[in-house]
Amino acid sequence: MRYLPLSDADRSQMLQVVGAKSIDDLFVDVPKAARLDGLIQGLPLHASELDVERHMGALSKKNMVAGDVPFFLGCGAYRHHVPASVDHIIQRGEFLTSYTPYQPEIAQGTLQVLFEFQTQVARLFGCDIANASMYDGSTACWEAILMAGRITRRDKAILSSGLHPHYVSVCNTMAKFTGDTLETSTPNLSAETDADRIIAAIDDETSAVVVQYPDILGRVVDLAPIAEAAHAKGALLIAVVTEPVALGLIRSPGEMGADIVVGEGQSIGVGLQFGGPYVGLFACAEKFVRQMPGRLVGQTVDAEGKRGFVLTLSTREQHIRREKATSNICTSSVLCALAFTAHLTLLGEKGLRQLAHLNHARACEVADRLAAIPGVSVVNDGFFNEFTLKLPVEARPAVHALVEKGVLGGVSLGRLYPDAPGLQNGLIIAVTETVTDEDVDAFAAALKEVVR
Amino acid sequence: MTVNPSGWRPTSPEKLDDSGSETVTGNRALMLEEPLLFERGRLDQTGVDIPEVKTTPARRVGGLERNRDIGLPGLSEPEAVRHYTRLSRQNYAIDLGLFPLGSCTMKHNPRLNEKVARMPGFADVHPLQPQETVQGALQVVSELAFWLLDLTGMYGVAMSPKAGAHGELCGLLCIRSALEARGDEREVVLVPESAHGTNPATAAFAGYRVENIPANKAGRVDLDALKARLGPDVAAVMITNPNTCGLFEPDMIAISEAVHAAGAFVYCDGANFNAIVGKVRPGDLGIDAMHINLHKTFSTPHGGGGPGSGPVVLSEALAPFGPLPFVAKMPDGSYKLVEEENAGEEHHASSFGRMVAFHGQMGMFSRALAYILSHGADGLKQVAEDAVLNANYVLRSLQDVLDAPFAKGGPCMHEAIFSDRGFAEGLSTIDLAKALIDEGFHPMTMYFPLVVHGAMLVEPTETESKAALDEFIAAMRSIAQRAKAGDESLKAAPVYAPRRRLDETLAARKPVLVYRDPAQAEAAE
Asked: What's the pLDDT score for residue B4?
């Protein structure tokens, strides 16, 4: 077996040193009644690299690959071009096969990367500080609500109807068990967001308001009035960013007064991967640092006075505080954070702005093109690279009909909100730099036929 | 003497006095210092060529255009590749040597897994694509789920948890849902004092009060103390098996029976499943829920702190409460994602709900499936046996120089535990650990579990050769003897690492968590 270095001769020699007659002597503590006599049933015997690659290759071919067809899906996962060097960097064995940096003298690589990541995330979100990653955007969102509860000592949060419905579901699941009260609602298929409704709903018991920016329909809402209203009542504004590339073009939530900004980092550096692994981003004002969940990397010096980095403020964390920790998170998403930070370093300010500009320009073109199809209209006034169409027919079957024509044409609101009758004709379209003119032609032609 | 036209001369090393020699750059040959990105990059530099925007459309962003710099310096591609390559070389990794971090199962990460995960049908599909376009991806999830059930003898499996602690949360939420469904409000979760910190933290996260149960002298759960504490207020007992002392709980079946008799559930922390995979099935031990760290037992890379993946296997009593979504295999051979809208028709209406956006760690599923198929039934059994043999070999090769508190009681499982008893005054586990760094090894887990004084938890894993173990043992023996003899130079270790010991107190007292430009930092002072 290619992954096992011990030979039979090694094994018998080692058993001798150990003082065991057979390997089973080492499993004496396992109750005999439960011990397996032979091999696990059902599972085939070991297989060669070639055979396994063939099997997995066959499964891979049973999927419609985004890069092979006109592709317009977003909703919290975006298809951007990732430079080849990013994948090279994350496959360096020293990054790929290292552990959480518990021994800082021999983990400065990961630690410095995370310090740079924290700085980039904080600047991108317009916040003072950021942590060294969470699992993904949805779990980061719930952690932010919990954190706001600890800070305000209140347990009632208002979730905007523009928040990704999966994020809402995750928060609802968790709130059932923690006893937090969440006020949620479904969006309207209109250009107007629910900002006014939210502002009116904030009261003295509100711990936080959670607003996605841009929101699930792609709308871009000014967060400043919401922040102001929240602060007036002693509540916090949590902003959720699922498409961080947008922040190359539009202003950051932190600038507009958000206290905690969380997000999904997938769209920078990390591929679609059918939904995971992704990387949760988490930033906030410095005064809240001791209430933050997750790992933090800090700068310090070594015994010779040289600059170095360490995991710090661990007294917030489970391995020290156990049941009093701010979160139970341990392993997070460091390799994806590396992909994010490497891609963002390659882009830089200049590249990110160009990329964001290009995405927006392409989305504007496509929106105009699709709105020209009879019966189809664009719901949004404002958007970044994602907008919602109102079709003259139900969007969910339309998406399947588009697949028949070889087009992956967006996410239907029916898939996300099956129980909301008013949303069934909504179709969310994301347009990134990967979309070609031919893709747009094919999509427009197919959609025209499907809605006829 | 012949003339060498190239000017080349063979070097002949001389004994030099190199004390105090510092280089101008701070580099030491292959050990290269690397400044921060923010000290090297520029806002107008980029390593990506973005096509020009053909037309300048009217911006439609609701008047929220960015009106100031973000402050993100960029690097050209060669500079970026060099920046990260230089940083990578300041890391220790399994690819470089033995990484015996107890409870972390730092085994070799096969590169086939990396190749498979990058196949376009897995890497380049969107989670919300229509299901008819992702049948192969759903089949990967389904096949992996099937083999995890086969290996554990359990009834159902929740695939979506993102890592071990997230899996613990999933298991406890199933337990709480099952109890609530029968109208049984319980508020306490019992956790052995030797448990991973995530166990009590998760129990608290799930809304439970945590109480400790003590260990006996043999390093196991004290069955009598446990039985005495069980009662109608206890929802669950969280057991790690093999436990964090590297020992199997021989009373596991009796523990499960006692817990079930009290109307509670058994949660097993599966972090140490590597020791028993293919040897015993948790389902045969009375366990109700157990997470499996794919990034431990099933070789997906740890990546410096994740991503992981923590599927949770469930007993028949808990499976109906498992989270959404999950993948169901239909009678016609197709695969279906069961989500909120169709949970009822798939007999899963009592699910506690969704834990994550989308469906879980697909990139880890394809890797873990490739690993399971590579090893097969025979290989996985051999994995457990070699992991246990390697740990016992280390235990018996060191027990004469290091205190091994449980060695007299019999063999260990996949990890060997030692204490710092017998070290000279002033020297402790950390000094031995840092000296190991100078010898070219990653240290073991230190000061955990708390039940052993100055604990050193050594988990070599099955992917270490006997030669690698012998080298490690020789280094450990030498350092242990120095520690016992009171060799104060251990306090200076590591000497040869990229950094000497770091000031963690300073880092926590005056936290610097982001880079500030020097002028900015000065202003903040």
From this structure: 52
Six-digit token string for B233: 């207020």
**Do residues A203 and A101 both lie within one domain?**
yes
> What pairs with residue A301 in β-bridges?
A307
A204 and chain B: CB distance < 8 Å anywhere? no
For residues A242 and A270, membership in a common domain is answered with yes
CATH number for B399: 3.90.1150.10
As averages over each run of 10 residues, the pLDDT of chain B (525 residues) reads: 56 62 88 96 96 75 93 98 98 98 96 98 98 98 98 97 96 97 95 90 92 90 95 97 95 97 97 96 97 97 97 97 96 94 83 96 98 98 98 98 96 97 96 98 95 96 98 98 97 96 95 90 68
Instruction: Please indicate, yes or no, whether residues B212 and B349 belong to a single structural domain of this protein.
Output: yes
Grouping H, G, I as helix, E, B as strand and the rest as coil, residue B216 is coil
* Residue contact A249–B66, C-beta within 8 A: yes
Of the partner residues B72, B101, B370, the one whose CB lies closest to the CB of residue A348? B72
Closest chain B C-alpha to A157 CA, distance in angstroms: 18
Comparing alpha-carbon positions, the chain B residue that sits nearest to A25 is B411
Q: How far apart are CA B182 and CA A292, in angstroms?
A: 36
- Considering only CB atoms, which chain B residues are within 8 Å of A220? 61-62, 64
Lookup: tokens for B406: 């449980």
State residue B150's pLDDT score.
98
From the CA of B234, how many Å to the nearest CA of chain A? 16
Torsion (CA) A408, A410, A416, A417 in degrees, nearest 10: -120
Which are the contacts of A287, defined by CB distance < 8 A and separation ≥ 6? none
- Minimal Cα–Cα distance from B272 to chain A, Å? 14
The verdict on A224 and A321 lying in the same domain is: yes
ipTM over cut 0.95: yes
Entry pTM:
0.97
- pLDDT recorded at residue B522: 74
